[in-house]
Specification:
Elements (H helix, E strand, L loop, with lengths): L1 H15 L7 E3 L2 E3 L5 E5 L9 E5 L2 E2 L1 E7 L2 E5 L7 E9 L4 E11 L11
Parallel strand pairs: 2-9
Antiparallel strand pairs: 1-3, 3-7, 4-5, 4-8, 6-7, 8-9
């Protein structure tokens, strides 16, 4: 119980550390194939240690904390189109969450017809 309360307080402190600016993802939508780079903008990112970002529970790739206000990551593939929660989990226990923070778009198939 005590650990859960501590984790919650760290989560709230992480949001407060965003310096009044909202935590956001740019772009907030992309292909269900994944692989696209996104920017997560906010604040107070660098002092919490290593970071794992998940999109709908699936870990992102190539996660880099570029500065106190910017993280870059590659979106993982999605099992299906739709909005998913994005969770930032830091080594010190701080967790930041963007409910329905990224919207996977259906991938359109390209049909190539053979010449007659």
């Amino acid at each position: 119980m005590r650990a859960a309360i501590g984790s919650l307080l760290l989560s709230l402190a992480g949001f407060a550390g965003c310096g009044g600016s909202a935590l956001r993802i740019e772009p907030a939508a992309g292909s269900a194939r994944g692989g696209e780079e996104v920017r997560i903008v906010g604040g107070d990112f660098a002092r919490h240690g290593a970071l794992v970002i998940t999109f709908g529970g699936i870990p992102a790739r190539a996660v880099v904390i570029e500065s106190e206000q910017l993280i870059r990551a590659k979106v993982p593939p999605a099992p299906a189109p739709g909005a998913v929660d994005v969770v930032l989990g830091f080594a010190d226990g701080t967790t930041l969450e963007l409910p329905a923070g990224f919207d996977y778009q259906a991938t359109q198939a390209v049909v190539i017809a053979a010449p007659d």
